[in-house]
Amino acid sequence: MTMTEQAYNVYEDRCPTRLVLDRLADKWALLILDRLRGGPLRFNHIRREIKGISQKVLSQTLRKQERDGLITRAIFPTVPVTVEYALTPLGRTLTETISALTHWAEQNMDAILAAQRAYDERDAG
What we know:
Layout (H helix, E strand, L loop, with lengths): L16 H8 L2 H9 L5 E2 H7 L5 H13 L3 E6 L5 E6 L1 H4 L2 H30 L1
């Protein structure tokens, strides 16, 4: 079996898909990819839109996503230099799934909080 024919199994502990899942399961990665769904954005625009993300974490996450082929980085020779990030075709294949997941959390937060309270009350008693 050649490398391109290799079958991946996420349940195997050494499968490289686990690294991808680990990066995609990161809240910042999900929020960045979901925000880029609307089109290219500048670094500072992304940082302003995603409350609580530090410049360092944003930079690291964007770099990882670029390495994985999910986003592109375009540099424009302006003063100061302008950098825009956009989804690649591969990154766009995730938009529906990521949007569903991120907005599922918003839509179901009250039920989750109620379940947590009920669990904590049962566990305390």
